[in-house]
Amino acid sequence: MQGRPYTGSVRATVSEPAARRLRNHYPWARRQDVLELPAVHPGEVVDVHGPEGAWIARAYCNPRAEFPLRLLRWTPGDVGPQFYGTRVRAAYQRRLDMDLGAEAWRWIHAEADGLPGLIVDRFGSALAVQFRNAGVERHRGWILEALREVSGAELAFERSETHERRAEGLSPQSGLLWGALPERVIFSEDGILHRFAPLISQKTGFFLDQRDNRRWLSAQFRPGQALLDLYCYTGAFSLRAARAGLTAYAVDRDPLALTTLEESAAHNGLGSQIALRLGDVPQVLAELRRSGRTFEHIVFDPPTLVKQKSEVPWAKRLIAGALADALAMLRPAGLLLVSSCAHHLRLEDLLEAARWAAGDAGALLEVVRVSYQPPDHPWMLQVPESLYLKSVALRRLE
Ligand SMILES: C[S@@+](CC[C@H](N)C(=O)[O-])C[C@H]1O[C@@H](n2cnc3c(N)ncnc32)[C@H](O)[C@@H]1O
């Protein structure tokens, strides 16, 4: 299906305002930005021109999609095996240069690595791959070849089940790409062994983007303290707490995530210090609050609550309500780490929700740290949407 490398001649034209954005490396054109679109198969490469005829870039074209053009190279050259080899190798070297001190990291973060729609996470000798648009889907053979050659990974599996893919007219897809599929992928993060079920866990298996927050919070842990780990998934915060001599109360509504946490706790010899609670966070919080329990550390790391701007006011109220309950259980000098992985929910929204909650709980809070996604999930200046994870650490003074 991928055919021969694209060397040029098919033309799409965009409006002048869009051309200005695209020339400055913004990678997407919407339907209303396009003046002329060729009748190509979804995902074929085309040349994008401004209305006056000047060449801007090469792009994947999907005439069916809401974003029919996804730009991928702003310099002349073909789009084929050599192109993918170069981009994949550059992203690899970029991660090595980041000196992440980790065996699991995001290798390819889509547009931020010049490969729109491609996500690759590396977990030791295993790769999790996600093809999110018709362009990378069309060229998957070349991409997989490059990934295999550059990484030498023993195993790769696909987790292409995102809403972006549906919006491109593609069906969800998951399965083994090469190697032998284990029941659990196992890897280490700072000496703790984590695991996930490769084809049925959430996303690509593990939330690598919280690594730096986990490291920071771990440095605040003292033996004998207690952590409340809300939206814990497979318990990466809880496991660190248990290793540092704390007790952890881990809450999630995904039964597989909690089973996995239980397995990891046993595997790391930390089982007795972590209590698991299957349930809905707002409900569990209200219940815990009534029980009078208190904690020195609380992590609040919800899923992507908003997919569009109009949902932000609702999400702020939801977060504020939950945080008010959480704050009622936070001991003096305790830390509350609040994250949002929704692009539309800005740092200011998170701070305001926390301020409302502090008012309700009668708590005086100091902002001790603000952080963003770690460098292996790059945030590109010209692509505002590439900033998604924001976190605030708050210390209770009174
Ligand atoms: C961003 S992930 C958390 C990642 C985790 N903190 C880590 O470090 O691995 C969000 C989690 O929230 C869980 N979740 C979503 N809605 C929930 C709800 N209403 N109550 C409990 N858990 C929920 C999902 O199952 C998912 O595991």
Please tell me about this protein's structure.
The chain is an alpha/beta fold and 398 residues long. It has 3 domains: 63 residues, Roll (Archaeosine Trna-guanine Transglycosylase, Chain: A, domain 4); 101 residues, RNA methyltransferase domain (HRMD) like (Transcription Regulator spoIIAA, 2-Layer Sandwich), CATH 3.30.750; 197 residues, Rossmann fold, CATH 3.40.50.150. The protein has 11 helices and 20 strands. The strands form 4 sheets. The chain has a 7-stranded mixed beta sheet, with helices on both faces. Strand 5 and strand 6 form a beta hairpin. Helix 9 runs parallel beside helix 10 and helix 10 packs across helix 11. It is globular, with a radius of gyration of 23 Å. It starts with 10 loop residues before the first strand and ends with a strand. Bound molecules: S-adenosylmethionine. The site of S-adenosylmethionine has 19 residues, from helix 7.
Give the gist of this structure.
Helices cover 30% and strands 29% of the residues. It has 11 helices and 20 strands. The model has no long low-confidence stretch (mean pLDDT 97).
Question: Number of DSSP strands?
Answer: 20
What is the CATH C level class of the largest domain, in words? Alpha Beta
What is the helix tally? Answer: 11
Rounded radius of gyration (Å): 23 Å
Tally of domains:
3
Q: Specify the structural class.
A: alpha/beta
Strand content: 25-35%
Percent helix range: 25-40%
The largest β sheet comes out as: 7 strands, mixed
Kindly report the name of the CATH homologous superfamily of the largest domain: Vaccinia Virus protein VP39
Distance between the termini: 63 Å
Shape: globular
CATH topology of the largest domain: Rossmann fold
CATH architectural grouping of the largest domain: 3-Layer(aba) Sandwich
> What topology, given as strand order, has the largest sheet?
16-15-14-17-18-20-19
Mean pLDDT: 97
